[in-house]
Amino acid sequence: MRWALFGYGFRPFFLAAGVAAAVIVPWWAGSLAWGVPLGTSWPATLWHGHEMLFGFIIAAIAGFLLTAVPSWTGARGFGGWPLAWLAALWLLGRVVVATSAFWPSTLVTALDLAFLPALAAFVLPPLLRGRNRNTPLLAVLTALWVTDIAFHWGLARGDPAMARQALLVGIDIVLLLVTVIGGRIVPAFTSSALKQRGDRTPLHAWRGMTALALAAMLAIILVDLFTPESSVAGAVALAAAVMQTIRFAQWRTLHTLRMPVVWVLHLAYLWLPVGLALKAVALLAGVGFAGFYLHALTVGAAATMIMGVMTRASLGHTGRALVVSRPTVGAYGLLAGAAVVRVFGAAVLPLPYTGVIVLAAALWTAAFLLFLWVYAPMLLRPRVDGKAG
Q1: Cβ 21 vs Cβ 303: under 8 Å
Q2: For range 12-31, the mean pLDDT
Q3: How many helices (H) and strands (E) does the chain have?
Q4: Which CATH architecture has domain 10-380?
Q5: Could you give the CA distance from residue 254 to residue 235 in angstroms, rounded to a whole number?
Q6: What are phi and psi of 327, to 5 degrees?
Q7: Is the pLDDT of residue 132 over 90?
Q8: Domain coordinates of the chain in residue numbers?
Q9: CA 58 to the chain's CA centroid
Q10: Looking at the predicted structure, is the pLDDT value of residue 205 above 80?
Q11: What is the DSSP string of 219-232?
């Protein structure tokens, strides 16, 4: 059997994202609930937050960019030994962070910070050569790299508050990316799917809503950079929730309910205004259950969007029809359940807080194990249509 893991950019990094998701969360939950040892010298919550952002989410972003850039620019796809070395660099960063108690902190910092510049070096030349309109997305990579630098700086200074704030701003940057990319693919894929069903009613786009939504998300980044968890941050989150709700209302969500490969993207985007509204309620009114808004934005919006994009792209780029299997739909449902439990479980379930975390982690882990069961063979093997990639 031929292997094709390094045949195209999405293959190693979507697989890496799935494995990271299935390992990091249960490891973290086990350490919290049962004292399962961690090999890191970092505070456990900071390790968890860092690896979900710079391990899981960054792997998914890398897979997306390494696949999208050739499509955007007409350049040759990324593959072979250079792609293998880039994947190895990501993996090395994860290993040294997970075992940071056994390494000099400067080595851990250097290896962890090496990946994003290397990724930028891959995608920058074709974007610049083609003068592509998506080139500003590299600013997102730069901003995420700066937040990782700030995170390590906070650890080195013995300032966990600074490290936590760096992660918060990093998550905000990811949500900006969800707003940009999700705002393109959700209506585009919805329109395409509805046309295939004979429904040619256009999606109505209200003039200026995209710019307002992006401005609101940029404002959230700035406020969380200078006055996090303040009443100002709550007011900005409320405004952003309104903008995102109006934008989402344009996309005919109810018409996609029989198309899981499409509705999962709608579900992911819906968590954005929900999470932002919860943030506003938590910061402006001090309502207890709303304090878990961050997981509405990470598990609900970011991770669900990642799951939806990875499943769709893996099917399309391995020569398969864009129809997801029942186990994939099950993975979508389990991930949605994990988000609901993690955000609302402490308020409504008769469980201790650690029990809520363990239940949410179990649902999350089951979702990504299903993803790996269905998609790992696709990612490892050649395309079914015999084409390269």
Answers
A1: yes
A2: 98
A3: 16, 0
A4: Up-down Bundle (1.20)
A5: 30
A6: -60, -35
A7: no
A8: 10-380
A9: 7
A10: no
A11: HHHHHHHHSTTSHH
